[in-house]
Write a structure and sequence with these properties.
O16G_dom_2, alpha/beta, Oligo-1,6-glucosidase, Oligo-1,6-glucosidase, domain 2, 16% strand, Immunoglobulin-like, 17 helices, binds 6-O-alpha-D-glucopyranosyl-D-fructose
Length: 556
């Protein structure tokens, strides 16, 4: 029998380095800051850190525009700090993965500068450059507003950028580009990095000839051209090649490949992460974040029943050897508690109940959980008051675009507040009054609310944070909760969800039940004697709003 790979049993934690911990008072989080907080993450029970970008970057898109893949962003520290951080993780039995942003580079990367200087030379082939004509080469749209093409007067060329104008798409059809990327991965693997989260990795292969996008699909998805790159013709081939040439160390160990795969859907996602496919190990399936018909900019209440239903359905569609990633937040999305509760998110009773329900769902289903910094302390959306407080290029561009299209300031602001990525990017509130920096934070300090800093949450045994910690410990102690069978129980009542987790020998059985509504509802599944590990002292006839229960059942 083959051994279970480590990442199937691991709990991942996403650090947004800019906003985690500042060590030198410049208001920007840094590597020494992260290093100084490793004991907190070990205490929480984290197995693997994922750091959002820390490579040298002009930060047009907060590090997702890399200038040098082998250098550390000056504001975040030095290579020696990075080596110390890797060592610090490994000494505590934790692993660490980095963010590999290679669908595009910054326009300040040497490759792009060389391409500009000599578009006919070898570096011209590193990007998608097209002759300067009156119109952009095709009708594709950028995710960050406007055409996906930027005209470069110095070179009389158009260059493709699916994201910001300073993020130019690399031409993966060029074997030289693929070799450079494999080299970058090997460089970091040799430094001890345990793998990568791979940014928009499903976008790397584009349809030959870059044909126009279909208008209807563009309307439907919101971005014209997407059908020409979201699952491109060479995608699988390039990922398998990178696995072999980049992620596989000389000793045969393979670094974990976690694909960030927006818009991929369940069926296509399987083709990328399926155990037999030899491409990625895990993919993030973003359909979990919004129910069908909703987008991030819509102001609506997310139904926790959908979160459970999405993963139930997903789990029935993968084979028994496949493995899924479980996540509800990241640095690109508002806080989940706020999506569920809306303006009631500051009510401590509801806030705790929803935070705990989310933790329970994420930590008792099969799959690999990814927790985003601050999720574990019950963070909610930041109360921003003015567009001038925001820093994210996507929010700023979108706001300007909406106003230019004639929308009122009020309506445009409401949209930005529903979906802004800056909600999740404010600094982690370590203690009352901050604790992130001694200087002025680069983005508004988080208004956590009384009781919701890390220090206060740690001190309160019933806090969201302590529930995360207990559930993580439980999952580690009882493999039934990590890798055991799952059986969803039909209850016949909307708002009541329940599932069993069972160890292969049947000796261990766990019952999880969640009230996904803000109302008191009847408890449905009768069970004999059980030991309640999370929830009210006894299983009464009804469940409180958003109540979650984890109970150990007698073996059959
Ligand atoms: O915000 C989005 C587009 O409207 C998301 O779809 C997001 O851009 C997408 O998930 C890709 O995200 C990743 O790549 C981006 C970067 O801005 C995000 O922070 C990153 O997570 C470009 O590198």
């Amino acid at each position: 029998a083959t051994e279970t790979p480590w990442w199937k049993e691991a709990i991942f934690y996403q650090v947004y380095p800019r906003s985690f911990q500042d060590s030198d008072g410049d208001g920007i989080g840094d590597l020494r800051g992260i290093n100084s907080r490793l004991d907190y993450l070990a205490w929480l029970g984290i197995d693997c850190l994922w750091l959002s970008p820390i490579f040298d970057s002009p930060n047009e898109d907060m590090g997702y525009d890399v200038r040098d893949y082998r250098a550390i962003m000056a504001e975040m520290g030095t290579m020696a700090d990075m080596e110390a951080l890797i060592k610090g993780c490994h000494e505590r039995g934790m692993r660490i993965i980095l963010d590999l942003v290679v669908n595009h580079t910054s326009d300040q990367h040497d490759w792009f500068q060389a391409a500009l200087a000599d578009p006919e030379g070898p570096y011209g082939e590193y990007y998608f450059l097209r002759p300067g004509s009156a119109q952009p080469p095709n009708n594709w749209e950028s995710f960050f507003s406007g055409s996906a093409w930027r005209y470069l007067p110095e070179a009389d060329r158009w260059a493709l950028h699916l994201f910001a104008p300073g993020q130019l798409d690399l031409n993966w059809d060029n074997p030289g580009v693929r070799a450079e990327i494999a080299d970058i991965v090997q460089f970091w693997r040799a430094k001890g990095v345990d793998g990568f989260r791979m940014d928009v990795t499903n976008y790397i292969s584009k349809s030959p000839g870059l044909p126009d996008g279909n208008e209807f699909i563009g309307q439907l998805i919101g971005f014209r051209g997407i059908e020409h790159y979201f699952y491109g013709p060479k995608l699988h081939e390039y990922l398998a090649e990178l696995r072999r040439d980049g992620f596989t160390s000389p000793d045969g160990q393979v670094g974990v490949m976690v694909g960030e795969t927006p818009g991929i859907g369940v069926e296509t996602g399987r083709l990328l992460s399926g155990a037999e496919r030899g491409a990625l190990d895990l993919v993030f399936n973003f359909n979990v974040l919004e129910p069908p018909g909703k987008i991030r900019w819509d102001d609506y209440r997310y139904d926790l029943a959908y979160l459970i239903e999405f993963y139930r359905d997903y789990l029935t569609r993968v084979s028994s050897s496949d493995w899924i990633a479980l996540f509800v937040e990241n640095h690109d999305n508002p806080r989940m508690i706020s999506k569920v509760l809306g303006s009631a998110d500051r009510d401590p009773v509801l806030r705790d109940a929803v935070g705990i329900a989310i933790a329970t769902i994420q930590l008792t289903l099969p799959g690999t959980p990814f927790i985003f910094q601050g999720q574990e302390t019950g963070s909610v959306n930041q109360p921003f008051f003015d567009i001038g407080e925001l820093r994210d290029v996507e929010s700023l561009n979108r706001y300007a675009e909406l106003l230019a299209a004639g929308m009122s300031e009020e309506a445009a602001w409401a949209q930005i507040m529903a979906g802004s990525r800056d909600h999740a990017r404010t600094p982690l509130a370590w203690e009352t009054g901050g604790g992130f920096t001694t200087g002025a934070a680069w983005l508004a300090e988080t208004v956590a609310g009384p009781g919701y800093s890390v220090a206060e949450q740690r001190a309160n045994p019933d806090s969201v944070l302590n529930v995360y910690r207990r559930l993580i410990a439980l999952r580690r102690e009882h493999p039934a909760l990590a890798t055991g069978e799952v059986t969803f129980l039909a209850s016949g009542q909307r708002g009541y969800a329940a599932w069993l987790r069972t160890s292969p020998d049947g000796a261990e059985r766990w019952l999880v039940e969640v009230n996904t509504t803000g109302r008191r509802i009847a408890r449905r599944i009768p069970e004999g004697p059980c030991e309640i590990v999370l929830g009210p002292p006894a299983r009464g006839a009804t469940m409180a709003p958003y109540e979650a229960v984890v109970a150990r059942l007698r073996p059959r």
